[in-house]
Amino acid sequence: MSGRRSRSRQSSGTSRISEDQINELIINLQQLLPELRDSRRSDKVSAARVLQDTCNYIRNLHREVDDLSERLSELLANTDTAQAALIRSLLTQ
Fold first, then answer.
1. Rounded to a whole number, what is the distance in angstroms from the first to the last CA of the chain?
2. Distance CA 42, CA 75 (A)
């Protein structure tokens, strides 16, 4: 084993995650992704694909949040003060 790898293992001590734990996390991520969730257990999906799809999904969610925030700001700007106040109060609950 290389010296660097050995030092890395020593410094991480008991906080090292096992391969089984990583595999379980990958399976959990796969279940959260709409495009991969419905794939059958027999359909092997690589960990790399699950991670890439997870990154893409999170990016898309961020875009959706930004778009919805912009639409809400436009809506609030175009409504009267009382309605805007009501909407803001509902959002902060």
1. 55
2. 47
Residue 75, C-beta contacts closer than 8 angstroms, at least 6 positions apart: 87
Q: Residue 9 is encoded by which pair of tokens?
A: 């293992």
Q: pTM score, two decimals? A: 0.67
CA distance linking residue 69 with residue 54, whole number of Å:
22
Residue environment code for 50-88, b if the CB has 16+ CB neighbours within 10 A, otherwise e: beebbeebeeeeeeeeeeeeeeeeeeeeeeeeeeeeeee
Residues constituting the chain: 93
pLDDT digits (tens, 9 = 90+) for 11-36: 555 689 999 999 999 999 999 999 88
Tokens of 27: 């399976």
Give the C-alpha separation, 21 to 4, whole Å: 23
Interatomic CA distance for residues 26 and 77, integer angstroms = 43
